[in-house]
Design brief:
By secondary structure, this protein is an alpha+beta fold. The chain contains 3 helices and 5 strands.
């Protein structure tokens, strides 16, 4: 299992700050999240998704991943 943490608007859209997931690849995880949380599906393409602290492609396996962070774009000033 991989722990997925949702930050800011991603957490609001998912309705939780984190959860455990079992998808095999990052692409499968993205598809499952968009299906399960329609509000998250709308912002997920703009989110930075880090696997164990690194940006990865959708074909990245999650079998050894411990942590996935979903970070929506942040504005600052």
């Amino acid at each position: 299992m991989t722990r997925v943490r949702y930050f800011a608007a991603a957490g609001e859209a998912a309705g939780r700050p984190e959860e455990e997931r079992s998808e095999a690849t990052l692409g499968e995880l993205r598809a499952a999240l968009a299906s399960q949380y329609p509000g998250l599906g709308g912002i997920l393409p703009r989110c930075a998704v880090l696997v164990d602290g690194e940006r990865r492609d959708d074909d990245a396996p999650l079998s050894d991943a411990r942590l996935v962070d979903v970070l929506p774009p942040f504005a600052g000033g």
